């Protein structure tokens, strides 16, 4: 509870600091909304032209897109600067966080708190429309709504674990932005589409080495297509918890190898 209370206080202070620049907040929100909207419109145009991709229609692809977008928004809202560890390592600002009387990861997660309003709005709209249409057609039932909420939370945990594991490599190699482009940005973009589009070797990477496919694609096979069984989502939830635990241990190992700018 002390850690949670401290996290809440630090987040509140970060929000107050951010809102000192209201124009910048709203401008970045609108810009992010426009960029993401254009991206999804491109997907929609392709599906409108061809009807479906590998048997996946517009609403099913929209489901994949909406769930991973909301999972990403939760992860980047609650732990934005985990993704930006490199700048702390390069500038030496990580030393300032190390001397605070709180765990380093907690201090890092509360830096530059981002309210990703555009992603929440767009992801919510896309997911609501797609789920509504699939409910109307009888493809899914109302039970899919709470299942989807669980999928989004599990997805956020998986994305956070991937981001944390990637950032940890920075304690050895310092420059991790290129690696993050692969493990976070490119991998997440890939699973906005059905993974059946990709060759088997790439599917294997996205389910094992960089298990971002477990964040939305595998759950969607059960929620939308009733493949596998009811055990799938609990199993993915257990995997997410174990994966996060492993990445937290890796983070601790990385911290033990860190050499500050003053050493």
UniProtKB/TrEMBL annotation:
TM helices/strands, residue ranges:
25-48, 149-173, 201-224, 231-251
Q: Which UniProt keywords apply?
A: Membrane, Transmembrane, Transmembrane helix
UniProt keyword Transmembrane present? yes
Q: What is this protein called?
A: ABC-2 family transporter protein
Q: Which organism is it from?
A: Paenibacillus baimaensis
